[in-house]
Design brief:
With 229 residues, the protein is α/β, with parallel strands linked by helices. The protein folds into two domains: 4-124, Response regulator (Rossmann fold, 3-Layer(aba) Sandwich), CATH 3.40.50; 132-227, Orthogonal Bundle (Arc Repressor Mutant, subunit A), CATH 1.10.10.10. Helices cover 42% and strands 21% of the residues. The protein is built from eight helices and eleven strands. It has helices spanning 12-24, 35-44, 61-69, 85-93, 106-124, 158-169, 177-185, 192-207; strands at residues 4-8, 28-32, 49-53, 76-80, 98-101, 132-135, 138-141, 146-149, 152-154, 217-220, 224-227. The strands form three sheets. Strands 2-1-3-4-5 form a five-stranded parallel beta sheet, with helices on both faces. Strands 6-7-8-9 form a four-stranded antiparallel beta sheet, covered by helices on one side. Strands 10-11 form a two-stranded antiparallel ribbon. Helix 4 packs across helix 8, helix 6 (158-169) packs across helix 8 (192-207) and helix 7 (177-185) packs across helix 8. It is globular, with a radius of gyration of 18 Å. It starts with a strand and ends with a strand.
């Protein structure tokens, strides 16, 4: 069975083009032209991914994503004509996994969709026997995909999980933004570097400080990031 994608886009030309690209790549696609219709389709179907415009009639894309996140952790890709850093941060802050600005090329769209689908399959699929990575006060279970800190569950998105797992598996190793992008997405786009910054900021907020009151994830100026206890 093909993966099913929800596309919520009020520009009919763009939505038709996206449906064609994705259908030719083997995906089933349902289109909504406003936010309310998109929410109705979401509740009536079992989707594997959502592609959502920020500016929508009826219900803004941000509000739609928040509603979806109450019920599902499926990957969500924002498409928007807004390219500002604040707009990207806003979209990622409500639970989107990725952000692409208009105009975009079909190959870039498909690459991002495939990367998101691959991460989602890892999250949903059969994993290896239970394995825990302990680091300071944190324990990451790579089978249940759960993070505990002092016994308290910390909710992570699929992208946050992959980034944190990379750090925890390689403590004290510095990773550049480019390396993190390639690890998470399988590809690298320069525009993704700002997305990485936002995701790391979210991880820092969620995991809090260590016993000494310092951030687990350190910024190494000009080089990237590393985690140290």
């Amino acid at each position: 069975m093909n993966e099913k994608i929800l596309v919520v886009e009020d520009d009919l030309d763009i939505s038709k083009a996206m449906k064609l690209y994705l259908h030719n790549a083997g995906y089933d696609v349902l289109i909504a032209n406003d936010g309310k219709e998109g929410l109705d389709l979401f509740f009536a179907n079992d989707f594997d991914m959502g592609i959502i415009d920020m500016m929508l009639p009826g219900m803004m894309g941000i509000d739609l994503i928040e509603k979806i996140r109450e019920k599902s952790e499926m990957p969500i890709l924002i498409v928007s004509a807004k390219s500002g850093e604040i707009d990207k941060i806003e979209g990622l802050s409500v639970g989107a996994d990725d952000y692409i600005t208009k105009p975009f090329s079909p190959p870039e769209l498909l690459a991002r969709v495939k990367s998101s689908m691959r991460r989602w399959k890892i999250m949903k699929g059969t994993m290896k026997p239970s394995q825990e990575i302990s680091f300071g006060e944190m324990v990451l279970n790579t089978q249940s995909l759960q993070l505990l800190k002092n016994g308290q569950l910390i909710e992570l998105t699929a992208t946050e999980y992959k980034i944190l797992k990379l750090f925890l598996e390689h403590p004290n190793q510095i990773f550049s933004k480019k390396q993190i992008c390639e690890h998470v997405n399988g590809e690298y786009f320069e525009s993704d570097e700002k997305v990485v910054i936002v995701h790391i900021s979210h991880i820092r907020d969620k995991i809090g400080k260590n016993k000494e009151g310092k951030d687990y994830i350190k910024t190494i100026r000009g080089l990237g990031y590393k985690i140290e206890n």
